[in-house]
Each structure stands twice: as structure tokens, then as C-alpha cells.
Design a protein that fits this description.
InterPro entries: ArsR-like_HTH (IPR011991), HTH_ArsR_DNA-bd_dom (IPR001845), WH-like_DNA-bd_sf (IPR036388), WH_DNA-bd_sf (IPR036390). The chain is of the alpha+beta class and 112 residues long. It is 62% helix and 12% strand. It has a three-stranded antiparallel beta sheet with strand order 1-3-2. The chain is elongated.
């Protein structure tokens, strides 16, 4: 898990912004040009491109330029990092709550 921490940190930083999460959500429906994506957000294209670069540099999306059109594609495998981390955290907390439940509901020890 430790070997993924720098990558995981980058993915969480990228997903910390609501605009970038909205872009990831939109790209879940399929590849879209930067121009189409940018129209959905009330900001200038250069500001929007900063979000695209952050997502791309952290591996959440890929962009492909064809002529004057840059198309964004979601990298679903990268989201698996988050899914794996969350699954590990869920397992740890379930084990802890199970132990707590056993401690609370377990048979009482007889006192001398």
C-alpha cells in the first residue's frame, strides 16, 4: 500500500475540487472534447484547462489532440486506486467494530 501513497495522494488532491469531480463524472458517460466540457462550467477556458491538466497529470484522464480538438477520456483504472484504498479502510473498520461488538456482547468473565 505504501508504494501507492504518492499516486493516491495525487488522485485525492485532484478529486478534492468539485469542478474536477464533475469533469470525472461527466467523462464517465464517455469521451468529450475540452470545449464541450468547459461550456458546463462558469469559468474561462484557461482556468478550466488548469483543472484538465491537474486531472491529466494525476492520471485520472488522458487527452488526445486531433487537429484543433482536444478530447478527454477517463482513465477508469486510476480510480481503482481510490476504490482499493477505500476497501482496505472499510475492512479495517469492520474488523475493529466486530472486535468491539465481541467485547461488549461476549460472555462476562467470572470475577473471583
Amino acid at each position: 500500500m505504501a508504494q501507492y501513497s504518492a499516486e493516491l495522494d495525487g488522485v485525492f488532491v485532484a478529486l478534492a475540487d468539485p469542478t474536477r469531480r464533475a469533469v470525472v463524472r461527466r467523462l464517465g458517460l464517455g469521451p468529450t472534447s475540452v470545449g464541450e466540457l468547459a461550456r458546463e462550467f462558469p469559468m474561462t477556458l484557461p482556468s478550466f484547462m488548469k483543472h484538465v491538466r491537474t486531472l491529466e497529470s494525476n492520471g485520472l484522464i488522458r487527452t488526445v489532440k486531433s487537429g484543433r480538438v482536444r478530447t478527454c477520456v477517463l482513465n477508469r483504472e486510476r480510480l481503482a486506486l481510490v476504490d482499493d484504498w477505500l476497501a482496505e479502510q472499510r475492512r479495517i473498520w469492520e474488523e475493529r467494530t466486530d472486535r468491539l461488538e465481541q467485547f461488549v456482547t461476549g460472555p462476562e468473565e467470572s470475577s473471583p
